[in-house]
């Protein structure tokens, strides 16, 4: 829901960083893989109760996640890069929640399981529509620079990271935050399923 605003704010500094990155010969895929590796450090940090370290890993992951796209646009965007970007993002998101479950299984395991379940809904509805958008040659007007059709929703990247930050700053409130975000993810999934199904029904009835 807030991704469009966030992207406008971060695009200028990311572009400056991307220009330097290209000059030193680092590719977009290198940035993607480095960001994923750093982000996955949040899992052991969370599991051992080092929430500040986890927050740092999450923040660096998100910066590099934005940087890889900026580098790709300055050089050459590829399907391989877009594929790696989205797959590794979903693995990272689930890893963070799993880390909180490991930190305190008694309090956090059930809300963590619920939230990962909700992530399956948001992720599958997002990616499944992207497949058919490619088939019908649809292009997202809100996110024209994305490597695939970016289906919007209430819970997008900005909201996800916002909740991750709150969870790291307020780890004792993880169960409450997880269930609140679970509700937003469920609403996002429902809106995507209904909206996506309606759009595809319209497209299949339209003359080609």
From TrEMBL:
GO biological process terms held by the UniProt record: phospholipid biosynthetic process
Gene3D superfamilies listed in its UniProt record: 1.20.120.1760
Membrane-crossing residue ranges in chain numbering: 33-60, 81-103, 115-136, 148-170, 176-195
Any one Pfam family match given in the protein's UniProt record, by short name: CDP-OH_P_transf
InterPro entries per the UniProt record, alphabetical: CDP-OH_P_trans, CDP-OH_PTrfase_TM_dom, CDP_ALCOHOL_P_TRANSF_CS
Stated family: Belongs to the CDP-alcohol phosphatidyltransferase class-I family.
Protein name per its UniProtKB record: Phosphatidylglycerophosphate synthase
Species assigned in the record: Reinekea forsetii
Source organism phylogeny: Bacteria, Pseudomonadati, Pseudomonadota, Gammaproteobacteria, Oceanospirillales
């Amino acid at each position: 829901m807030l991704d469009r605003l966030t992207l406008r704010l971060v695009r200028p500094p990311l572009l400056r960083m991307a220009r330097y990155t290209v000059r030193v010969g680092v590719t977009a895929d290198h940035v993607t893989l480095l960001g994923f590796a750093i982000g996955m450090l949040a899992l052991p940090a969370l599991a051992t109760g080092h929430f500040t370290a986890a927050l740092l890993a999450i923040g660096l992951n998100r910066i590099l996640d934005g940087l890889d796209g900026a580098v790709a646009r300055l050089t050459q965007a590829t399907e391989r890069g877009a594929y790696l970007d989205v797959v590794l993002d979903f693995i990272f998101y689930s890893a963070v929640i799993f880390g909180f479950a490991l930190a305190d299984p008694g309090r956090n395991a059930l809300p963590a399981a619920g939230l990962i379940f909700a992530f399956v809904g948001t992720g599958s509805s997002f990616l499944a529509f992207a497949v058919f958008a490619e088939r019908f040659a649809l292009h997202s007007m809100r996110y024209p620079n994305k490597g695939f059709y970016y289906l919007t929703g209430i819970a997008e990247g900005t909201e996800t990271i916002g909740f991750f930050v709150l969870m790291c700053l307020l780890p004792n409130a993880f169960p409450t935050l997880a269930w609140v975000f679970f509700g937003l993810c469920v609403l996002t999934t429902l809106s995507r399923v209904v909206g996506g199904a309606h759009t595809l029904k319209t497209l299949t009835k339209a003359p080609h």
